[in-house]
Structure formats: C-alpha cells, structure tokens
Amino acid sequence: MVGAPSMEDPGEVAPTLVVMAGGLGSRFGGDKQLVVIGPNGEAFLDYAIRDAMEAGVGKVVVVARTDLDEALREHLAAQHPAGLPLVIVHQDTFGPRRSKPWGTGHAVLSAAAEADGPIVVINADDHYGRSGIRRALEGMAGGGERAVLVAFRLDRTLPVGGAVSRGVCEVDGNELLCLVETHGIRREGVVILADDPPGELSADAPVSMNLWVLPRKALVSLGDQWEAFHDAYADDPSAEFLLPVAIDEQRAAGLLGIDVVRSDERWIGVTNRDDLAVARAAFADG
Q: What is the CA radius of gyration of the chain?
C-alpha cells in the first residue's frame, strides 16, 4: 500500500500532532477549518497547535485537501513562527481519488508517513480545552504500546441546536470496553436522545471527540484495515473509513489496548453555523 507505515523502532521520539482538516463541512455549509474564532484571526487549529507544542509534541502534520492548500499555508504563516516544525499533506492525493473524503481513518493514514513515533489525533474544527492534548499525552503508559482516548461528558459536547454524532464509550475503570458510533444525538427538553442506535443517553456518558494518542503499531494495523475496507467499498461513493470504528476493531481483535482519560473540559466546536456565535464568545478574550 502506498504510504503504509512501518514498524521500525524509532526509539524515544516526541509525538506528532495530526490535525484532520480535510473534511467538506457539509452540515456547516462549507469549509470551516479556517473559520475565524479568536480575536486575532485564530482558527481552532491554531489554539490546538500552540497547546500541543507546549505539551511536548515535536511536529505538526495538517491533513487537508489540495484546494485548501494555499489558504491554509497563508493562514498558518500568519499565525505561527517560521520555525514551527509543520507539514501539510493532502488526503485527496493519498490512494484512490473521489470527491468525498474517505473518512477520518484514511486521513490519519495519509499523515502516517510523516510521523516517526506515536501520534496525537485531533479534529481541526473542535476545541478540546487547554488541557485536552496535555491530558492525552499524560495518559501514555505501558511503553507507548497502548492507545489513549480522551473522553468527555456527553452533555459538555452538545451544540446549542441541531443533532451530532458521537462515539459513546463503555468503560471499566480506565479501560475502553466498547465504542459505539451514535448518530442523531440532540437535546429534547431535559433529556438527550439519539436516532442510531435509538434511545435515551445519560448526560454523563463518556464520549469520544476524536482526541487520540495512537502508538506506531496501531497505524500499521490501520493500513491493513484500510486495504480491506477499500476492497469492500471501492465503488461506494459515500462509504467512510472511520478512525474510531477502526481503532475499536483493533481493540476487539486483541491487537490494541485503549486507556481512557476523562476530561471535564467543555467542548467547543462549529458543527453547524449556529455554533459560531457561541464559539467566538468563548474566545473573545483570547
């Protein structure tokens, strides 16, 4: 497979931050990766990059689309120092082309060749709180052989209006037992409901917002999973190779242990355009 990661031992290598910024923003109604949130022109990814470098990340890889490249480079040059160890990779040129991106698992694979050690994965359009990435890195244990998932309370990850998808976690102590991709989650009065799978969800249910630390071996397995996925869904224009689903499959197969670190931070994001005012108010003071 083109760009498949290897299992060569890189020794003690600082983690690489992988920022997934290749989505189409369908629910938002356009590209939202560079939407201004902060008072000095900052987008969400700018805050994440600064937090990650302070937490000990050694390199940043931004996964984007080719058509965003020029605007992204201009934005990053204006927001960050020239010496920042940052590269941009294009998800749409990694493997087979199609108009809709292949999904978050494919996005991570497109960045894997740029990382020599473990990676920290985030969404470009989410803010995980000042402590989010630091907490993820602090959760690394077992010689870096286990993955880390930062889980948030469900009620702290819901937008003001509209429905969202979240990875609902079943946890035993700090061990992830199961992760269920749940769609159509929204508030209805004092309860939280979901469409798929249908039912009522607890406000304090731990959920994934795609803040992961993944060891090298997880990326190797991800490459194998991508090949199998593409063989099965090459002709399906809407099929998505989703990172949380793939990582949970590794867990279920006994290939990867996953430690859950809980965060009390409140998620801030722009799933829908109505979320912009709330996000900007949260960052009004920088």
A: 18
With tokens 């498949």, the residue in question is: 4
Domain that holds residue 54: 16-282
> Is residue 200 domain-resident?
yes
> Taking a C-beta distance cutoff of 8 angstroms, is the pair 89, 20 a contact?
no
* Domain annotation covers residue 10: no
Give dist(CA 201, CA 154) in Å, integer: 8
Pairing status of strand 191-195 against strand 175-188? antiparallel
Output the domain CATH number for residue 262.
3.90.550.10
> Is 250 a member of any domain?
yes
**Structurally, how many domains does the chain consist of?**
1
Using DSSP's 3-state secondary structure scheme, residue 63 falls into strand
State CA 186 to chain mean position distance.
21
Cα(55)–Cα(183) distance, integer angstroms:
32
**pLDDT tens track, the chain, 286 positions:** 445 565 454 457 899 999 999 875 555 545 778 899 999 999 999 999 999 999 999 999 999 999 999 999 999 999 999 889 999 999 999 988 888 899 999 999 999 999 999 999 999 989 998 899 999 998 886 567 899 999 999 999 998 778 899 999 999 999 999 999 999 999 999 999 999 999 999 999 999 999 999 999 999 999 999 999 999 999 999 999 999 999 999 999 999 999 999 999 998 988 777 888 888 999 987 6
CA dihedral 133, 136, 141, 147 (to 10 degrees): -120
Q: Is residue 5 in a domain?
A: no
Between the alpha carbon of residue 249 and those of residues 119, 215, 252, 276, the distances in Å are 19, 15, 5, 34
